[in-house]
Amino acid sequence: MVSQTTFVRQSTGLVRSLGFFDQFIISQSIIIFLNSFVLTSLYAPIFFPGADLVVVFALGSIPAFAMAAVYSIMSAAIPRSGGDYVWSTRILGPFYGSVQFVFVLVTAVIGGLAYPTYYAVSIALSQFAFSLGATTNNTSLINDASNFSKPNIAFAISLAIIAIGTIVALLGLRVFASFQKIATVLFLVVAAGFLILLLAIKPSSIPGLVNNAFSVAGSNVTYSGIIQQAGSSSGFNWTNTLLASIPWGFLAFTGFNYGSYLSGETRNAKSSITRALFLSVIVATLLMVLMSALSYNDFGIQFLNSVSYVEANNGGSLPTLLTTSLLVSLTSPAVAVFIGIGLFVGFVVVSVSYLVTISRLLFAASFDRLLPARISDVNDRLHSPIYAVSILSALWVIVTAVLWYGGFISTLLNTSLIAPIGYTLPLISTLVFYWRKRDLFNKTVSTVAKPATLVLSSVVGIVAFLFYIFAETFPIVSGTFLGASLSLAYELVIVFLAVGTVIYFVARLRLRGFGDELSRIYAEVPPE
Fold first, then answer.
1. How far apart are CA 222 and CA 212, in angstroms?
2. Could you give the CA distance from residue 312 to residue 495 in angstroms, rounded to a whole number?
3. Alpha helices, DSSP H only, in 83-231?
4. pTM here?
5. N- or C-end of the chain: fewer Cβ atoms within 10 A?
6. Boundaries of domain holding 310
7. In contact, 59 and 312? CB cutoff 8 Å
8. pLDDT < 50 regions, the chain
9. Where residue 381 sits, what CATH number does that domain have?
10. Is residue 315 part of a domain?
11. To 5 degrees, how large is the angle CA 508–CA 513–CA 516?
């Protein structure tokens, strides 16, 4: 029995209204495989020259499947709002949970809220304007492409995206589920069209399209000139392909498991979340592998690797990035509109999904009294944690402003160690669960899975993310991945570790003032 004073109240106030299809849509709307493919195909060869994307995505799915197994098992065993925060705190205690809370929250705010918003403007809208201008010979549209990189204009558009996402999240799960279904179906139509276009493109037409794009932009760069600039970096490299699979292959999947934060609002969480997560990884893997193979057939691995090299070392010839989506968009004005809308919608639904799912992380921490109780308040009519959503939206605005006014690349590099730590911490708790809390394990996990399944899946994920950290830190290929940002990246890790520590001790002192202890609260699983 849960004592009356253990948690903020006797029930969460949240309602189980999501089913399998809702969970699948949430997972897909976070992966957004077309957008993930576009970004990975440009950036992976920058850090690992010569990487073959077909292999990168296939190998990158391995830790994704491991996480699908862990999060499926734990969501079935402890189906509570807050997901990995709830189980980690019950296994390893409130201090560990406080640190994990900070790293997961920061990862989600930066990578799940701010980055997609930044990409929606800097990539989707910029490419939309440029490709439409290039295919219609409209110089004013080509000039507009540059405007989407100007901080004042871009941030204003970003604020509009944030406002839409916040309204959807505040209106509750029914509105959110409807919004995501409509937006994701639209995105899936565009993704299917993208595949059809890749099948229809004539490889012989690509040099002419590229040359025309640079010409209308006032640049003398050519298709053959890009390959010449890259030189030996344009070829295939098997070692770099293996190394790029972690982190870059897995980065395409990040956050796909965050529907588990809504497990306390999911009907039959055991089957719904399990099927949704595994099906989502399978679909995304197959489609990204297929997109990679078709892109190599159309554009050539030599040219795509050369584009990555030029963007990293001598970019700026175009007012937007020369990605695979832009190459396809250059085929006609109709295609430019079609792809542009799809990419924009894709980036928006990522942020909305993160806002709703991660708001349950704040909710759960407040419900346990780690954070002030008011944050766990739920609107009686909408069944939405309005304060948790509002706090996240405020953080979303702040970090997005940092990206536009402080620099995207510097932020990306300086904070890049936070994410793999955030992904690893929940897996460490599930790895030791069987030995650390045997009684709780037998009451929960033993009813849905064997200990070996959870342990093995946890090990696969942990090894992958430890390599992720290693690859960012040490000069495996051609210099340190983080370069000059390495020291600051580790300093930020220490800062956020300190923040988690402060949150823990403040909560501990606050509860002691009321004659209570955090350890007593975290000895029990919260109610539904």
1. 9
2. 30
3. 84-92, 94-107, 115-119, 126-136, 139-147, 151-170, 173-200, 206-216, 223-230
4. 0.92
5. N
6. 20-521
7. no
8. 1-4, 479
9. 1.20.1740.10
10. yes
11. 65
Number of domains in the chain: 1
Q: Retrieve residue 126's tokens.
A: 């910029």
Angle at CA of residue 285, ends 52 and 65, nearest 5°: 110
Q: 451 is written with which tokens? A: 């200990």
pLDDT tens digits, 145-180: 888 889 999 999 999 999 999 999 999 998 999 999
Q: Which two tokens stand for residue 320?
A: 């937007």
Q: Do the Cβ atoms of 200 and 295 come closer than 8 Å?
A: no
Question: Residue 25 and residue 382: Cα distance in Å, rounded?
Answer: 21
pLDDT in tens, 420-465: 999 999 999 999 999 999 999 999 999 899 999 999 999 999 999 9
State the pLDDT at residue 234: 66
- Determine the Cα–Cα distance for residues 420 and 226; give it in Å rounded to an integer: 34
DSSP secondary structure of 333-390: HHHHHHHHHHHHHHHHHHHHHHHHHHHHHHHHHHHTTSS-GGGG---TTT---HHHHH
Residue 228 Cα to chain centre, angstroms: 34
Judge whether 35 lies within some domain.
yes
Q: Which two tokens stand for residue 30?
A: 């976070």
* pLDDT score of 113: 96
Look at residue 174 and give its three-state secondary structure: helix
User: 1 lies in a domain?
Assistant: no
DSSP three-state, residue 266? strand
